[in-house]
Specification:
Order of helices and strands: HHEEH
Mean pLDDT: 92
Structural class: mainly alpha
Distance between the termini: 7 Å
Helix content: over 70%
Largest sheet: 2 strands, antiparallel
Shape: elongated
Number of domains: 1
Number of helices: 3
Radius of gyration: 17 Å
């Protein structure tokens, strides 16, 4: 059973890092929206390609643009915080209980 416990701990850690990096990309996207970056810059294009599918789904489901301000990054940020606090900690707790 301890192998499954270590597997769950590893999955929780990897998932936590993925969510953390996506959170950083969301913050970078929000900061880039305040300035007018070069749209042909590879870093800007990468950040747009990574974050736009998630932000687009939020924008289509919920009208989150009020007064010209897009609140979809805030909603995604809150969902990531929830996933990190609930899902990752639950998986890590299950893994620790199997050790």
């Amino acid at each position: 059973m301890f192998i499954i416990g270590f597997l769950l701990l590893a999955v929780a850690r990897v998932l936590d890092f993925i969510l953390l990096f996506f959170m950083i990309f969301i913050i970078a996207r929000a900061v880039l929206s305040w300035v007018s970056p070069d749209p042909y810059n590879p870093i800007v294009r990468f950040i747009d390609r990574v974050t736009e599918p998630v932000l687009f789904r939020i924008r289509t489901k919920i009208p989150v643009v009020y007064g010209g301000i897009d609140f979809s990054p805030l909603i995604v940020f809150l969902v990531i915080i929830f996933l990190r606090d609930f899902l990752v900690k639950s998986i890590a707790g299950m893994g620790r209980s199997l050790l």
